[in-house]
Automatic annotation (TrEMBL):
Residues 7-125 form the Response regulatory domain. SMART domains: HTH_LUXR (SM00421), REC (SM00448). This is LuxR family transcriptional regulator. InterPro entries: CheY-like_superfamily, EvgA-like, NreC/VraR/RcsB-like_REC, Sig_transdc_resp-reg_C-effctor, Sig_transdc_resp-reg_receiver, Tscrpt_reg_LuxR_C, WH-like_DNA-bd_sf. The modification 4-aspartylphosphate is found at residue 60. It comes from Shewanella mangrovi. Residues 149-214 form the HTH luxR-type domain. GO terms for molecular function: DNA binding. One of its GO terms (biological process) is phosphorelay signal transduction system.
Amino acid sequence: MKPENLKIIIADDHPLFRSALRQALSPAFANTAWFEADSADALQQLLESDGQACDLVLLDLQMPGSHGYSTLIHLRSHFPELPVIVISAHEDGTTISKAIHYGSAGFIPKSASMETFSEAINDVLMGDIWLPEGVELVDIDDEGSSEKIAGKLSELTPQQYKVLQMFAEGMLNKQIAYDLGVSEATIKAHATAIFRKLGVRNRTQAVIALQQLDMDKVEIG
């Protein structure tokens, strides 16, 4: 029996993919409220407004404001009860293994059929872990630099994570303060906390640390 009356967020920066996925899945999930996010920031705003009521997030690893696994790590840290299924064009064993390692409840290749999407979503909503057929997970080195950064990143508050994303976009403190509606002093305080938690000295080092989680930095096995 398929779950009904769900709230599902599709987080992907390609509007045609979001629309096609939503339309294709809607008949299989009755009375589901669908929401869309085209960036890590848009996803965060949706979850901050009503995160506890959400049933599932379908998350693309590569969106504006998201560095590889950073958004997944952030979600699992601050919404531990919320299941996340990663959807990605990267279908190799290392990428899938890292997604599961960082807390994803499933991994669906973008090339999968709608029947596969439906099956995966149902399994995850029932509490299972879903993987593509034939995938063998590989061991992840917990002592690697990206693993250490992942652990530190999970300690950031949602606001600190947002500020770090803005650092990565090259925005100045004044611009960030304006966009977030706070003072420059508040941004400087956030920056100090970010540097301390990440174990770095300045924003350049903080951005470099974040970029260690980028997909193009991942060794493909």
